[in-house]
Amino acid sequence: MIDVCLLGTGGMLPLPKRYLTSLLVRVEGQAVLIDCGEATQVSLHMTNFSPVDIGHILFTHYHGDHCSGLPGLLMTMANSGRTDPVHLWGVPGLEKMVKGLTVICEYLPFQLVFHEISAKEKTSFQAIGLDWTSCPVKHRVPCLAYSAYLPRGGRFDPARAKALDIPLPYWSRLQGGEVIEAEGRVYRPENVLGPERRGLRLSYATDCRPSAALVETVRDSDLLIAEGLYGDPAKQADAKSKGHMVYKEAAKLAKDAGVKELWLTHFSPAMMNPKEFLPETRAIFPETHAGFDRKTTTLRFSEDA
Amino acid sequence: MIDVCLLGTGGMLPLPKRYLTSLLVRVEGQAVLIDCGEATQVSLHMTNFSPVDIGHILFTHYHGDHCSGLPGLLMTMANSGRTDPVHLWGVPGLEKMVKGLTVICEYLPFQLVFHEISAKEKTSFQAIGLDWTSCPVKHRVPCLAYSAYLPRGGRFDPARAKALDIPLPYWSRLQGGEVIEAEGRVYRPENVLGPERRGLRLSYATDCRPSAALVETVRDSDLLIAEGLYGDPAKQADAKSKGHMVYKEAAKLAKDAGVKELWLTHFSPAMMNPKEFLPETRAIFPETHAGFDRKTTTLRFSEDA
């Protein structure tokens, strides 16, 4: 399962009740943070997630509202006792940005590991047990969307295990994919597991225009978190010129990609009530929800799969 | 008069209800900000002060909790329409710190003017009509306390003005210190004003140990805002080793300097209730108050002076 917490939902500047857009993703106690604007750590403090567990920080791009909270968060992670390395991911320019911001970090007791990802083509990498894909998107500066996939092994077949005379203590280890050698025999997972089942997909796309590549990247997501800088469809020209989406464009993206659920985020500070434009947005994609700070869910494998 | 707003009162890390220590000082619509940790702009947003009016930002030192909010604030000032220069003040290293942090500021429509102040001796400068003094203080890194003085001219003597046959329309201009030439005569303020009266003094000392130089700098302040990282006197050894003060030390500083009122700030995140240790602190200096985010006052010339 994947824990998801939308730490902030604001664009441009942090507001008292709407901090800057940032997403925490946790799998079995290890966490990835996507974007880290000013006050992200304040929102994190209000959750039951610990800053110590953050092993990876992914950036969509380097506009201030997506990275200004980095030095403060790193210092708080240091004060919280983290000593394991922290991996940083983003388009080229990452190291320059981080080294600029951390000029005020007197000492960090962990290594910063830089992973500069292509701003031109999709890239795959692994973090916290998830298979990540970055997808270059159209914004005013190089920018990435991210999609994470948690694979799911095949269903365990107890009848087959019995027929093969496999001792009971090995069943769960085989189910976990382990090859076991014991008592002169070799037990292999593929002998007792069915075909790989559908896993879980979580996608995050902010500060971007829709594109065919983005649709493919987020296809079949269980949850897509996407920006809706403006709710008002009249703002579409503005959104286009600034490299952003209005609600309806995010909804069409969700529909085209066949996702299960859409959370909107990165709201303009001028938009007082992000729910105002939901009805017409749901006419395009019914499972659209307005994000809010610390909106949280757990994505689980379906029982019947 | 001087408007004073303690935007935050936390040390080390911003908490949901206690942002990092920062002070806004405003005189006739122009503002100075002292220190700018992460989320300072969020607290500012909750006040009736505008980010556009901030013409000067003073730093005590460059530990992250005193400057991590700078890039976000500058971007918000830019988005709010400021185009006038912004003056930055602090010990040597200022420009390096600011240039590091502003790596994420794509474009600022105003000039940043750097004023590096001695970390070894007192310095005087002017900003927003106040006479400022910086005083090097003992901390783990070079650090400054600041004291601001608003001078007050002499009392206008109407009987003397009448006796000198000065036309009524010139009275207020003379009171304001203007020399007026009119109808072949010269009218001088010193002819109708008494001796200069006591002005107003506001002082700010955080992240420091007490010292004789600091006592002299903040002497006779109408309001001293000083750090009390710890309330518990048992923490004094900790405070000393880290270059901080416990409440009682701040109270003794206030008493020794003969200030009128003391506000404590820069509380340890571990201290849940900053008011807990006030009774024993007031035994040393009765006019001690625990700061809280957006504690606000206006210092006014006394009516009877």
TrEMBL record, chains A, B:
Oxidoreductase found in the keyword field: no
Keywords: Endonuclease, Hydrolase, Metal-binding, Nuclease, tRNA processing, Zinc
Stored InterPro entries: Metallo-B-lactamas, RibonucZ/Hydroxyglut_hydro, RNase_Z/BN
Keyword Nucleotide-binding listed: no
Gene3D superfamilies, per the entry: Ribonuclease Z/Hydroxyacylglutathione hydrolase-like (3.60.15.10)
GO MF terms, alphabetically ordered: 3'-tRNA processing endoribonuclease activity
Subunit organization: Homodimer.
Name of the protein: Ribonuclease Z
Origin organism lineage: Bacteria, Bacillati, Bacillota, Clostridia, Eubacteriales
